């Protein structure tokens, strides 16, 4: 077996061995709890937690072990505070724990009842959501921080007035057929194409490119005949495609449990910050500061797998390629997936994007096997591959800034306003150009300024110069070519940014918009949007400013923008556990929770932007409209909504 394949197999087996190592995991929470409350005074309640126990386990009574509490209450709102320690029913047995070196611990062997007091600052909700963290174990087993989420009614509390499901808003019963037939699968072709393009880009990275002639030659020689070699190579390419498609399947399970989960992931502050760190690390690796490698292999396992053949052997080699090339393909694939999650979410879109990536990566292997003479026309591996890797490093830095910007926008920190964002990109762009010209070097000899290298340098220089007006407070700062990617025009360092459109000031609450619409007898234009939504910004910066669109939105509609990723908490009296149409329970805690659920329950979508037109009597006037970069098409849809409003009268 060729050395490169043997080395790849060793890495793959090491990874399998590494992943298969695991410690004993805690079983599913074995204790059932009943939670009740008792009013003690204004804003003061006693919570009672009762469990019948579990004969197979011992429950740790509320106590301190090594300065850590075995029992704790957690609430999502700081207005709720625990005012006392837990009190137990007194039937706990005190024993000397061998696990804690003879320390006296109190354990429940059967039923237990605990009580504690809480205070609520402000209006008291009709029901309270919280989490009880408790500890249990047996012998040397010890499971602290086991979570039990609960909802308990509070005497005298104010019932939530939040409306979620409003049947008359269903676009299937709209007065006019104008709008999108099905927004769920829009953009699949473009996402597949972007994935395919990403796969082709990954092909010319230093981790993958040298493997093309080696792999094709290996399949051709080991198969005994050209026909068999071509069949195996085609199967190899198909296996690469299949592997990347299979990677998207877990998202269907997650999405089935909660259709909004992918959108929540894409706008999660900590996940975006994690992407920011990961992309910085990848960039530094591409610059040659260190190598990202997987654990080494085990020789015995290599030998046991070196003789595999036919489909599973070839599939195994394709999986090896996917793993050993991860340090180069990971950032490209990560950028694709993050973009798909942000723009629409949806497991179908992930499948199309990853399938396109797998096809772009695997197809060349099959084509070179069909036409081996093409291998002679490939450029030899050399310094140009290092240059490609460094250029990708600069692009990773730019993408890292975007992920940090997503977190900044969601939390409204104003750490990275628009001009700072663009300024960082300008610095990265000029540094990239200087690298291509040989001024900045990451080791090695000074590169030759070939026509291809100069052409790429000119391209990046032109783009960087185009960005320069973006840091000014002028009309040229709009930068329509990258519209939606930087922070919004109003998210600025300037006190009065001249590009911040003030003519349209959407409301931020549906119920408020409904009251205004009834008073003015105008239809409501609902804009489901998000702080980290790229296509939402493109609509606001390219379509909304169209003179006729702006006039209609300002004069003929009551516009309300509902941010599905708004992390600001709702008042306690509006927080609740909502049961969806599918019968699943969902906690409504933040403003974003409320509007995301409002969108999915009434309009059957979780992607943004999504627009809906409803009457003051809450009748759907048209079908909904998704991302529509054509101002004329958007105007026609708005006019259709106005015509439906007139017919309703």
Provide a compact summary of the structure.
By secondary structure, the protein is of the alpha+beta class.
How would you characterize the overall build of this protein?
Strand 16 and strand 17 (585-588) form a beta hairpin. The protein has 649 residues and is of the alpha+beta class. The chain has helices spanning 3-20, 188-203, 211-222, 226-246, 250-257, 261-266, 269-286, 299-305, 310-324, 326-343, 347-370, 383-411, 418-436, 451-467, 510-520, 534-543, 547-555, 591-603, 631-648; strands spanning 34-41, 44-51, 58-60, 64-65, 68-69, 72-74, 80-82, 87-88, 93-97, 103-108, 112-120, 127-138, 141-153, 524-529, 558-563, 576-579, 585-588, 610-614. It is globular, with a radius of gyration of 30 Å. Helix 4 crosses helix 9. Strands 3, 6, 9, 10, 12 and 13 form a six-stranded antiparallel beta sheet that branches. Strands 1, 2, 7, 8 and 11 form a five-stranded antiparallel beta sheet that branches. Strands 15-14-18 form a three-stranded mixed beta sheet, with helices on both faces. The model is unreliable at 1-26, 294-308 and 341-345 (pLDDT under 50).
**Distance between the ends:** 79 Å
Task: Sketch the major β-sheet.
Answer: 6 strands, antiparallel
Structural class: alpha+beta
Stretches where pLDDT is under 50 for at least 5 consecutive residues are: 1-26, 294-308, 341-345
Oligomer: single chain
Mean pLDDT across every amino acid position: 81
What would the principal axes of the Cα set say about the shape? globular
Question: What is the number of helices?
Answer: 19
What is the number of E strands?
Answer: 18
SS strand fraction: 15-25%
């Amino acid at each position: 077996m060729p050395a490169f394949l043997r080395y790849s197999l060793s890495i793959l087996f090491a990874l399998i061995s590494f992943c298969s190592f695991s410690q004993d995991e805690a079983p599913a929470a074995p204790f059932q709890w009943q939670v009740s409350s008792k009013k003690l005074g204004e804003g003061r309640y006693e919570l009672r937690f009762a469990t019948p126990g579990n004969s197979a386990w011992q429950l740790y009574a509320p106590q301190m072990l090594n300065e850590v509490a075995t029992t704790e209450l957690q609430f999502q709102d700081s207005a709720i505070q625990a005012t006392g320690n837990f009190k137990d029913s007194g039937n706990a047995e005190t024993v000397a724990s061998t696990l804690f070196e003879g320390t006296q611990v109190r354990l429940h062997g059967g039923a237990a009842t605990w009580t504690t007091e809480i205070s609520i600052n402000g209006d008291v909700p009709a029901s309270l959501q919280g989490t009880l963290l408790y500890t249990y174990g047996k012998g040397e087993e010890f499971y602290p921080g086991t979570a039990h989420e609960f909802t308990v009614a509070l005497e005298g509390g104010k019932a939530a007035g939040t409306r979620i499901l409003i049947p008359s808003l269903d676009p299937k019963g709209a007065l006019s057929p104008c709008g999108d037939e099905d927004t769920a699968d829009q953009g699949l072709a473009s996402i597949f194409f972007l994935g395919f393009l990403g796969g082709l880009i990954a092909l010319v990275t230093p981790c993958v490119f040298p493997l093309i002639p080696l792999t094709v030659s290996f399949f051709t020689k080991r198969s005994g005949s050209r026909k068999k070699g071509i069949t195996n190579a085609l199967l190899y390419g198909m296996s690469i495609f299949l592997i990347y498609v299979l990677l998207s399947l877990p998202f269907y399970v997650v999405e089935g449990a909660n259709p909004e989960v992918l959108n929540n992931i894409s706008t999660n502050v900590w996940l975006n910050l994690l992407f920011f760190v990961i992309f910085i690390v990848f960039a530094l690796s591409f610059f040659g500061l260190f190598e990202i490698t997987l654990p080494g292999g085990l020789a015995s396992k290599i030998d046991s797998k070196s003789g595999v053949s036919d489909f599973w052997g070839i599939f195994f080699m394709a999986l090896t390629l996917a793993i050993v090339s991860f340090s180069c393909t990971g950032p490209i694939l990560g950028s694709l997936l993050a973009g798909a999650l942000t723009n629409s979410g949806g497991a179908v879109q992930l499948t199309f994007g990853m399938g396109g990536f797998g096809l772009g990566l695997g197809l060349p292997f099959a084509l070179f096997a069909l036409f081996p003479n093409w291998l002679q026309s490939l450029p030899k591996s050399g310094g140009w591959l290092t240059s490609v890797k460094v250029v990708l490093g600069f692009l990773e830095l730019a993408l890292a800034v975007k992920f940090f910007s997503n977190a900044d926008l969601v939390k409204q920190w104003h750490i990275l306003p628009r001009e700072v964002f663009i300024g960082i990109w300008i610095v990265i762009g000029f540094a990239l150009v200087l690298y291509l010209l040989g001024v900045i070097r990451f080791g090695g000899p000074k590169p030759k300024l070939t026509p291809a290298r100069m052409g790429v340098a000119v391209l990046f220089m032109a783009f960087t110069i185009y960005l320069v007006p973006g840091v000014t407070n002028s009309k040229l700062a709009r930068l329509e070519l990258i519209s939606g990617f930087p922070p919004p025009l109003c998210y600025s360092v300037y006190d009065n940014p001249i590009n911040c459109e003030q003519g349209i000031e959407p409301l931020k609450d549906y119920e408020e918009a409904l009251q205004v619409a009834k008073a003015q007898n105008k239809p409501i234009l609902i804009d489901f949007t998000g702080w980290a939504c790229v296509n939402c910004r493109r609509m606001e910066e390219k379509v909304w400013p169209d003179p006729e669109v702006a006039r209609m939105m300002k004069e003929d509609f009551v516009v309300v923008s509902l941010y599905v990723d708004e992390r600001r908490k709702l008042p306690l009296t509006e927080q609740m556990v909502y049961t969806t149409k599918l019968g699943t329970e969902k906690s409504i805690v933040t403003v974003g929770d409320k509007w995301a659920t409002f969108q999915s329950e009434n309009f059957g979508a979780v992607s943004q932007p999504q627009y809906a037109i409803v009457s003051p009597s809450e009748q759907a006037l048209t079908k909904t409209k998704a991302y529509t970069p054509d101002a004329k098409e958007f105007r026609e849809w708005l006019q259709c909504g106005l015509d439906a409003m007139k017919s309703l009268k």
